[in-house]
Design brief:
By secondary structure, the chain is mainly α. It folds into 2 domains: about 45 residues; about 45 residues. Helix content is about 80%, strand content about 0%. The chain is flat and about 65 Å long. The relative contact order is 0.04.
Length: about 90
């Protein structure tokens, strides 16, 4: 009974929730609103900036991207890790 409660029941619940989401998205994808969004997306050019012309510009953009990703991924990780370490009981 413990295996059913810990493994099988959560798996069934996840599968049912995923099925409901998939069927719901299929109905939403067939609406006029979704067709309008697809049309707008197809007509909008991507917002890509100019290519770096020199090695210095390339390295600068690479450094900026690295710092951004470190802040956007590393900072939340550090906060979460610190909170988890402090809340765990010895």
């Amino acid at each position: 009974m413990n295996i059913f409660k810990e493994y099988i029941l959560p798996a069934i619940v996840y599968i049912l929730i995923a099925a409901v989401l998939i069927f719901g998205m299929q109905f939403i994808a067939q609406t006029d609103w979704a067709a309008g969004v697809r049309e707008t997306t197809a007509n909008t050019p991507p917002e890509i900036g100019p290519v770096p012309a020199t090695l210095v510009e390339f390295l600068t953009s690479l450094a900026i991207s690295t710092v951004r990703m470190t802040l956007l991924i590393g900072l939340p990780f550090a906060i979460t890790s610190t909170i988890l370490k402090r809340t765990q009981r010895p």
